[in-house]
User: Fold this.
Amino acid sequence: MNELNVVFIEPGAAPPERGPKPDRGETEPNVEPSLVEQHELQTDWKMVADDKALEEAAASIAAGEGPVGVDAERASGFRYGSEAYLVQVFRRGAGTFLFDPVDIRSFAPLAEALGADSLDGQEWIIHSASQDLACLEALGLVPEKLFDTELASRLLGFERVGLGAIVERLLGIRLRKAHSAADWSTRPLPEGWLEYAALDVALLPDLRDAIADELEAQGKREIAEQEFDATRTRPPKPPPAEPWRRLSGGNRLKTPRELAVARELWYARDELARERDVGPGRLIPDASILAASLAQPRSAGQLASLSEFRGRASRSELERWWQAILRGKSTDQPPGPAPRDPDRIPHHSGWGKRYPEAAARLAAAREAVAAEAERQRMPVENLLTPDTLRRLVWDPPKPPTVDAIGTRLAELGARPWQIVITAPILAAVFVGVA
Assistant:
């Protein structure tokens, strides 16, 4: 058996208070938690590191019962890409399996076991699914049904929605989160990390059941199902045409030459990061690219003497950076201002002076939607995203009837439940400020 890094709290007992008390109908009884020694919570898990072991694990999972807990660990910031370096699966009656993708050629048997290729595929339970779906899909693992415990917790109005917080709240188990930001490309993976990964996924079915009861109690089951489906089917964002323009602080670059140097440094860093399979920011951070672009050094020595030009590869790859700067300085095709997005609307911070009618609509709409979110006991951004609200307010349908507003909200990506709740409210707002 593998001892797990957890502490029990008796169901019904309150955890030690952390931060402000909740204000969405939550209660915290004045009962001191009764703690249990860590070794009293134990689980078995099996490491799967080759195709034969994967086939055996897939057969065991297929013979299990009920929804499947799924999780993935990446090496974000450590490696160039965002692929999974560990996939965890738990199913009642089957157990916990930790899959090491490094030496596994195909996840097809696991995909079949999870029902990814069938019309009645098994429900996957994932915490914060939007973080993991892309790396799972890269392995051929795509859910047909989804239950997102983090998203559901937001819809329920929980103040803290991290896995540890809701496990503590609903299951009475206090997790000691220690490895979530680790470099999961490390090999061999330390035993403690594997125990952490196994426990995370093993608790998901029980957590899902507890959350499902809460959703039923609040009348939010259908709302949650629509949100889960929207998360599962949301297409990935297309890659930007000019990714270098996303440099942190890039708005400080004003001249074409500054922009050109920044562009060449960004591509030079990206090329080296890809070659070494390392996070670009671990070579030189965005702040270093920005500093060099603004300083416009006249020699490699001057670049080396620039105190703001930092990073583990800032000096060891100095010639690479200097050549990039020279390309930026000498190009006869420096970049101009960023192309205007045809769908972009003016930033709302300037509406008060330039577009007072839109500003008045936005203020009234925000107040009304916030009040409804409070009544629904959920964050306002889950009731209606700020971007959706601003776009609707900027160009409302004329006349602003409930049906017309509902149609516009659907075009902007709002789900049916959001439209049913907010369209009448917003119609009344637009009539009131007309």
